Amino acid sequence: MKVLVVGGGGREHALVWKIAQSTKVSEIYCAPGNAGIAKLAKCVNIGAEDINALADFAERERIDLTVVGPEAPLCAGIVDEFQKRGLRIFGPTKAAAEIEGSKVFCRQLLAKWGVPSPKFAVFDNPEEAKSYIRQQGAPIVVKAEGLAAGKGSIVCLTLDEAINAIDRIMVDREFGDAGKRVVVEEFLEGREASVMVFTDGKTVKPMLPSRDHKRLLDNDQGPNTGGMGAYCPVPDIDAALYDQIVETIMKPTIAALAAEGRPYKGVLYGGLMLTKEGPKVLEFNCRFGDPETQAVLPLLKTDLVEICEAVIDERLHEVETQWSDGACICVVMASAGYPGAYEKGKVITGIDDAEREEGIIVFHAGTAQKDGQIVTSGGRVLGVTAVGNDFTDTAEKVYRAVSKIHFDGAHYRRDIFPR
Ligand code: AMP
Ligand code: GLY
Q1: 208-239 pLDDT, tens digit each
Q2: What domains can be seen in the chain, in order of their start residue?
Q3: C-beta 117 within 6 A of ligand 1
Q4: CB distance 220 to ligand 1 below 6 Å
Q5: Closest residue CA from atom 5 of ligand 2
Q6: Which of 194, 207, 288, 330 should be mutated for ligand 2, with most atoms under 8 A from CB?
Q7: Per residue in 22-45, is it b (16+ CB within 10 Å) or e — as a string?
Q8: In sequence order, which residues have a C-beta less than 8 Å from that of residue 246 and are 6 or more positions away?
Q9: Sign of the C-alpha dihedral, residues 41, 7, 385, 323?
Q10: Which pLDDT score is estimated for 55?
């Protein structure tokens, strides 16, 4: 089989790495890919959002299966376009992807079908939003409706911050048209967790739970980022709680989407808050998480291509998904200055040395090849990943690997393990 992976970050490197282990696969392409992906796949110079060029490429190269990483092409209808052309693709249609594409749609769907969620209200008028916020008080959360590269949710600890968030999103249009409408919602307290499931719209096969670390600095300090590391599984989610999450959140949401005429196929990602009253939905994503995927896929024993094919053919019930015992940790190494402005082109050394040790995989995110060297080309540069028997062993291993890798200004968190 010939497989095309769409995207070029750490998540896509993990997807390519896992797909490369499938005995069904002869060739892998990745658009646009990165320097690490280039070792396993042919990188194709097409942007992840150039849907027509991707479909043309898949037709021309007779690609048997396309797997999409990022949300933007999914929300823009890449699956619909491929299906129209008779091409096999793994992911939700545009209508189903709206669960991530519109926070208003998501919140209204969950409320209608009784999926545990924070109290919320929707506004298209900034003055009305502000008067609701004054009524509710702080802390409170303000979210732009549309896609905002993960930056559209503002957790406001004071009233002033919340009023200011309305101005930023609705008046200054910091996130463009994504901020035409806002969701204002109840602030939830607890620990966060990410639960991803495979689904063909009927059958649901949960992956192991994982936990992202969104803040830049240790002990969850500093600004929000795209994710500074993840671990899998999550020790504070026991079997009963996991079952509760799947049965009261994941399955009902997939059933609700089907009932609304938007059958969901692909990976559904629930971003959850584990509150005192039980797990509640912070957000849904229509895709694999980044960096969660880098920590989850190394523990998946089953062939990912077999799962993707079963999802497309709506026979996921036939596949048994198997998971390794043990633990996985992914530590992100980022450029100095990230998530603000940063320089590119810093030479990276020590990757081969780090990977020589058993159980270490270095997933590339923002890297490029230049004059025979690997250099930084993005904010998040590498996802150094270790698989081990338990978290103590795995944490030691992953940080030993991180210490072997160098580039100017490299920043990483030192607390990516269960505490
Ligand atoms: P989102 O883009 O909706 O995932 O939000 C980004 C981050 O904001 C989440 O990972 C949480 O840390 C935080 N967040 C979002 N919604 C809430 C909420 N209702 N209560 C508390 N924190 C939230
Ligand atoms: N790790 C958060 C996300 O993938 O959206």
Answers
A1: 999 999 999 999 999 889 999 999 999 999 99
A2: 2-93 (3.40.50.20), 119-186 (3.30.1490.20), 191-318 (3.30.470.20), 327-402 (3.90.600.10)
A3: no
A4: no
A5: 289
A6: 194
A7: beebeebbbbbbbbbbbebbebbe
A8: 195, 197, 204, 206
A9: negative
A10: 98
C-beta separation of 320 from 220 below 8 A = no
Spatial contact of 289 and 281, defined as CB atoms under 8 Å apart: no
Indicate if the pLDDT at residue 179 is higher than 90: no
**286 dihedral zone (left: phi>0; alpha: psi -120 to 50; beta):** alpha
Distance from residue 200's CA to the centre of ligand 1 (Å): 27
Query: Amino acid identity of 304?
Result: L
pLDDT per position as a tens digit, 236-286: 999 999 999 999 999 999 999 999 999 999 999 999 999 999 999 999 999
Ligand positioned closest to the Cα atom of 191: 1
Quick one: which of 25, 104, 34 has its CA closest to 69?
34
For residue 326, give both structure tokens. Answer: 């043990």
Strands 89-90 and 120-123: unpaired
Take residue 141 and report the two structure tokens written for it.
Answer: 């959360």
Answer left, alpha or beta for residue 228, where phi above 0 means left and psi between -120 and 50 means alpha.
alpha
Please give the model's pTM, rounded to 2 decimal places. 0.96
Cα of 181 vs its chain's centroid, Å: 24
**Residues 6 or more apart from 127 whose CB is under 8 A from it?**
none
Query: Do 102 and 146 meet the contact criterion of CB atoms below 8 Å apart?
Result: yes
Return the ligand number nearest the Cα of 187. 1
Nearest ligand atom owner, CA of 282 = 1
Q: Judge if the beta carbon of residue 292 lies within 6 A of ligand 2.
A: yes
Q: Which amino acid is at 4?
A: L
